[in-house]
Amino acid sequence: MPQFMDVHRGMMGITAAQLSAAHQADLAVEAEAGVHFERAWADPESGVVYCLSEAPSADAVQSVHTRTGHPYDEIHPVPLSVS
To answer: How far is CA 39 from each of CA 21, 22, 44, rounded to the nearest angstrom?
Structure first.
């Protein structure tokens, strides 16, 4: 399944608890859109949050984020990765 990295801006001062709550909200409804959110990262100082997901499309990712109240500002396909 394709992977996507989405970017949320304007979240200055986000805490670990707030990031976790937002991620958990996505996990609670992700299956309805065929999405799986793998991980989220945040920089409280710049207010940027990144989410890595597997999904059939960028629209599916956006549908989950919109439903949970935090639509992304941009999204990028991730066709290659290494670990």
So the answer is: 13, 11, 16
Cβ-contact 56, 63 below 8 angstroms: no
The helix/strand count (H/E) of the chain reads as 2, 4
Q: d(Cα 64, Cα 35) in Å, to the nearest integer?
A: 8
DSSP state of 16: H
- Helix intervals (H) in the chain: 16-29, 58-67
| CA–CA dist 4, 22 (Å, integer) | 17
Tell me, yes or no, if the pTM score tops 0.90.
yes
Tens digit of each residue's pLDDT (9 = 90 or more) over 12-59: 999 999 999 999 999 999 999 999 999 999 999 999 999 999 999 999
Quote the tokens at residue 34.
């065929």
Question: CATH top-level class for 3-77?
Answer: alpha beta
